[in-house]
Amino acid sequence: MLRSLILPALIAVAAPAVLAAPDQAAAVQNLALGERPIRRAEVVAFVKKQFTRMDTNRDGSISPGEYRAYRATQPAKADAGLGYIGRSWFDKSDTDGDGGISPGEAQARPLRFFDLADVDGDGVATIREQSLASLFIGR
Q: What's one Pfam family here (predicted)?
């Protein structure tokens, strides 16, 4: 049951959000909690796309400066939906301590949370699993 209670943390806490452009807001809307089942592959694609947008110098790593610049432009938490990047995202994601976020680091936490939420391990977080997760964290 604990595994089904972690999905909101998947994106709200762990996944980066890029909402600076209207098409980016649509991507977050597609991963809105409780509206439809969410596949693991969608989470991977979501994180990859957003990583690419955060990595403004295209060096394959998100620097502290890129992270701060993104944070300064993202919408308020209430408007950002499940893709809001919190103030501790960088520190929690930089698992090797090298001062940058690699694509693998950006994906690791969201996928770990997704896998915990996907109770039956079928690669899909159902609406029921999302609802249980939502109740657990008070969304």
A: EF-hand_5
Residue-wise pLDDT tens digits, 60-104: 999 999 999 998 988 777 666 567 788 899 999 999 999 999 999
Q: d(Cα 1, Cα 50) in Å, to the nearest integer?
A: 30
**In this model, does residue 12 exceed pLDDT 70?**
no
- For residue 101, list its beta bridge partners: 62
Nearest partner of 111 among 25, 70, 51, judged by Cα: 51
| pLDDT at position 22 | 38
d(CA 34, CA 36): 6
Q: Is 62 helix (H, G, I), strand (E, B) or coil?
A: strand
Maximum distance among all Cα pairs of the chain, rounded to whole angstroms: 42
Exposed / middle / buried, residue 97 (Cβ in 10 Å: 0-12, 13-18, 19+)? exposed
